[in-house]
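New to this. Help decode both lines:
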Amino acid sequence: MTRAAQPTFLAALHADRALQQALTQPEILAVAVRIARAAGFEVFGADLMAPPQEPSLQNPEEGPAAEPLQIDFDGDGVPDAVLQGGRWVLLDSED
C-alpha cells in the first residue's frame, strides 16, 4: 500500500462503529494490526482505534451539540483552528 492510502484506510476504520466496538477486544485488535501490516500499513493498535469524541457528538439523544471549541491565534476574530473529534484541526486562511 502507498503511504497516501493509509489516512483513507484509517478514516474508514474510525468511521465504522461496529468495527470500533470489536477492536476494544485485545485479541481482535491484535489480529487487525497483523492484517493491516500484512497489507503494507505501518500501524499500531492505537492507530486503529478512533480518537475519543466529545460526548455531545457521540449520542444525538444527549441534546444539541455545544458550540465547537475554536482558537483565534492572531486575534483577527476569525477562528484559525477548531476541535473536531478530539483533535485540533487548522482551518485554511486567506492571508
In short: Helices lie at 5-15, 17-22, 26-38, 45-48, 55-58. The first strand starts at residue 70 and ends at 71.
